[in-house]
Design a protein that fits this description.
Blueprint (H helix, E strand, L loop, with lengths): L1 E8 L2 E8 L2 E6 L6 H9 L6 E6 L9 E4 L12 H11 L4 H15 L14 H13 L5 E5 L7 H14 L3 E5 L3 H4 L4 E6 L2 E6 L1 H5 L10 H5 L2
Parallel strand pairs: 3-7, 3-8, 5-6, 6-7
Antiparallel strand pairs: 1-2, 1-4, 8-9
Length: 223
């Protein structure tokens, strides 16, 4: 379980929150603190006060995979294979094991045909999938996705959803503007002005948002 107590950082004020294993999706208006919250969960930022504990450990001592909204800005290596292998090399995993782990992850993500391609030649959607593979290759306990689906077309978005559910990290915490993808989550958090206004299952949260832009189009058409 991820436990958050008395968390304070910039706009954020979260007194008490528990996140269970599974997929947790964060939605809410721009500027509500969603990305800031993910940075705290990933250990990129540290809270001014309070705590985030992931199965007994702080974020910086946990195995975490991170993909942000613009993954192509964080490309480290020339080829797809080297990019996916980056986290393994930083961990000094033996070369033979790296090769096998990269191939297995690329197969699961559906990008094995791209392994020898230069990163600069990939489309935006392909770069997102490669960044997702790089985040998953070391089998993190928690996968954090910061609106990395925002530049994907519908087909690529479905591919990413399939990868997340197939690879099945113990925890997935993501924020998205695509509320229709949020209905596939185990838990939804609605942020506003740095606070969690609604939390619960998709059905529980979206029932409070029926007359807002955050209600899924899928449910408007097929209630």
């Amino acid at each position: 379980m991820i436990t958050i107590r008395n968390l304070r950082y910039r706009i954020l004020a979260i007194d008490d929150l528990e996140i269970l294993p599974g997929i947790t999706t964060i939605i809410g208006p721009n500027g509500s603190g969603k990305t800031t919250f993910l940075k705290l969960c990933s250990g990129i930022a540290l809270p001014d006060s309070g705590s985030i504990i992931i199965d007994g450990l702080p974020p910086r001592e946990s195995e975490i995979g991170w993909v942000n909204e613009f993954p192509d800005r964080n490309i480290l290596f020339e080829t797809v294979e080297d990019e996916i292998a980056s986290s393994l090399r930083f961990r000094r995993v033996p070369a033979q094991e790296i090769k096998a782990m990269v191939n297995a992850c690329a197969e699961s993500v559906g990008v094995i045909h791209l392994l020898n391609r230069p990163m600069r030649e990939l489309s935006g959607g392909e770069k997102v999938l490669i960044s997702l593979a790089a985040a998953l290759v070391h089998k993190p306990k928690i996968l954090i996705l910061d609106e990395c689906d925002s530049h994907l077309d519908a087909e690529r978005g479905r591919e990413m959803e399939t990868v997340i559910h197939t690879m099945n990290p113990y925890y997935v915490i993501r924020c998205t503007q695509n509320v229709d993808s949020a209905i596939l989550s185990d838990q939804v958090l609605f942020f506003e002005n740095g606070r969690i206004v609604h939390s619960g299952t998709p059905g529980q949260v979206f029932s409070t948002l029926k007359n807002t832009p955050f209600y899924p189009m899928t449910w408007r058409v097929c209630p």
